[in-house]
Amino acid sequence: MKKLRVGTRKSLLSARQTELALAALAKVHPALETEIVPFHTRGDLILDKPLWAISNQGKGVFASEFEEMLLRDEIDIAIHSGKDLPVLLADGLEIIGVLKRDDPRDVLVMPKGKKAEACKIIGTGSLRREQCAAKVFPWAECRLIRGNIQTRLQKLKDGEYDAILLAKAGLDRMGITEADGYAFRVLSPEEFLPAACQGIIVAEGKRELSSFVGAMTHLETQYIFETERAVLRLLGADCSAPVAAFAEMAGEVIRLRAMYGEGYAEGKAPVAARLQLAAEVVGRLRK
């Protein structure tokens, strides 16, 4: 095909995620030429409010401009972090490529030598993380923090927070470790149920490219992605309430755990019945 135009946010993490997606594409299409089209989204520019307060579908603030560019044929695909997608994609667009999931867990990041018990102020912009933190770290207060990973880590170094909550996948992709002057407490899904699709990189585009781009898809992660996304869709979740959905596969069986507000439900089913499982779990959440 002609040169593939790839839309991505301008942050260092987004650039790294795009590199990973293009590397996966290059494995299945070695001769493919690509052009990266970077763009600052509304979510990148408005940093004094939590995401859920910026729009009615807070997660869409990182995707809506790219969807407009896709529909105007200014780019061919857009690379997203799966957890940043809006509940509903724009008409005419689909997720056409799914990379293998990276570590889905959250991390409490502290200055080197600090313990969680000494952290009184924790930075997060997520209602889900705030609710989980209230249970796991009841002595601490959560305060809003926005910006990319580097901005947040600098605020931690400057002493504005005792600790911050970040996605393990993002830290791993940027090569940030405890050796860089931090102490990590990696939080299990039992403590902090992950956000739906956290750790999953996806490509969004039009259906005519689904076969070409989809050649890079990791099938197990696609099943997990579809299951977790179904929970958000069925709940109509828009970031105005704490929500989480985390699926895992063992052979041909998929386990789904979900949280909405104070509610929690889980279940297992054959992978072929994954969407029915999502509906059943959501039904129990609503009771």
TrEMBL record:
Its EC number is 2.5.1.61. Residues 227-260 form the Porphobilinogen deaminase C-terminal domain. It catalyses: 4 porphobilinogen + H2O = hydroxymethylbilane + 4 NH4(+). The keyword Acetylation does not apply. It comes from the Bacteria. Belongs to the HMBS family. Tetrapolymerization of the monopyrrole PBG into the hydroxymethylbilane pre-uroporphyrinogen in several discrete steps. This is Hydroxymethylbilane synthase. It comes from Anaerotignum faecicola. The lineage of its organism: Bacteria, Bacillati, Bacillota, Clostridia, Lachnospirales. The gene is hemC.
